[in-house]
Prior knowledge:
Shape: globular
CATH topology: Jelly Rolls
Order of helices and strands: HEHEEHHHEEEEEEEEEH
Radius of gyration: 16 Å
Amino acid sequence: MLTLPASDDVLASGFTDDGYLPLPGLLSATLLARLRAELQRLAALAVRRDFAMACMNNSPRHLTVVGGEAIAQHSTLIPALYREPALLAFLSRVTGLDITTVREPVERHVLNVLHRPGDTHGAHTDDYPLALVLFLRAPAYHRDGGLLEYTPRASTLDALNTCSARRAHHRSGDAHLLRSDTTAHRVTPLRRTGLQRVVLNMAYTTPGRQNAVTDSATLLYG
């Protein structure tokens, strides 16, 4: 289902240095089509969010979401993909961590949909140490927005406003891996009508870091 890279040593070095690892073409055409169909089926459960996240420097949230609890109750494809043993083994090899699934359902696996001009997922860090982000749809060009902006090993979210911040563009079918608890990150706003950035975000943790869910996750996905 997933086209997992083979050169684990090279990937591990890159991830350790940067806290970010691009995985272009991770989704096969077949799996991408199945996930898009699943998104359409789950669309009735989606909730619009438009607010400033007080606990994350009042950064904006303008997006439509399907939270982890709804996905767990109404999807079999996404939970099966999330728990795929080959994927878990790959994540452990690349990160050097004992990676396991997240027990609590709120942000275990979520769908984030940016589909209006100005839609954005503002500055934040995640509760759990690892995020695998699968791109179901994405703007084709950098200038259209929807870029990942990130700063590794950030002590504050303000690091995103300095010259140390980096940007990455992804296409439909791509993925990226992020050390999401220590990397400040956000998604730049969509810049015109007709664009979509649809991602499946899957959170992973280590055995000693379960039940880390915070108010920010509940406000967005609960």
